[in-house]
Amino acid sequence: xxxxxxxxxxxxxxxxxxxxxxxxxxxxxxxxxxxxxxxxxxxxxxxxxxxxxxxxxxxxxxxxxxxxxxxxxxxxxxxxxxxxxxxxxxxxxxxxxxxxxxxxxxxxxxxxxxxxxxxxxxxxxxxxxxxxxxxxxxxxxxxxxxxxxxxxxxxxxxxxxxxxxxxxxxxxxxxxxxxxxxxxxxxxxxxxxxxxxxxxxxxxxxxxxxxxxxxxxxxxxxxxxxxxxxxxxxxxxxxxxxxxxxxxxxxxxxxxxxxxxxxxxxxxxxxxxxxxxxxxxxxxxxxxxxxxxxxxxxxxxxxxxxxxx
Length: 309
Description:
By secondary structure, this protein is of the alpha/beta class. It contains eleven helices and twelve strands. The strands form two sheets. A seven-stranded parallel β-sheet has the order 8-7-6-9-10-11-12. Strands 2-1-3-4-5 form a five-stranded parallel β-sheet, covered by helices on one side.
């Protein structure tokens, strides 16, 4: 099999090509060439793939995505119906996302930000003990990432619920199905979004959602920027309906310097680093799936285009 690595944003493409070739010595791995002649690749490993991918690689049968979100693949120009899209199921991302969420959950529930202010004043001022029951966490998304986040929060004895289209159960968390969104939001104070971006979930972090949360709510978005209606978040922050937010993904990346999120002390901004695909684990997963495909065996992570994930 011939495999091409194609990405518009990856800063170390040659390192990925080398790692993939080392893991798959029986196959040919090369870097996609935007200027060269049409290629003969059977599969592509991609992240934010170039628009001309299928024009130069017309024989592609498989696209292995380096991330869990496949919204960028579904809008690729000339995407053939016969190409199988395969998303990354973990690649080390899930534990990083759990760490990210726990950091902001604990910072809020333990009032650790206020202690930083006390230190600047040389003030010895213990605050009230934590009451975890006052900080119910609601995770939107019950896939590999959402389940890991929910279980990490539950392990620290926070009340946790998970909402998904299927109502999938996650150990240690209360499960809610698609029609139960109002009940899920009503019991949630810390809302964590780990949903895939689809036509149904675009803009789901909006005023209507925020106003159904418990008072003094906190929002954590580690999925896609298009999930969030920025103006609605700012309005709910100003009204006091939401106390703050930790945002890792944005409609425009990098986030423009003029964006109001940068200067808003109620919002924590990070540059889409909540969960990165670790090269070693990712290459190992892709290599296993490539070999399974060659053997004619089924693989996991295949994208259902109708569901958009």
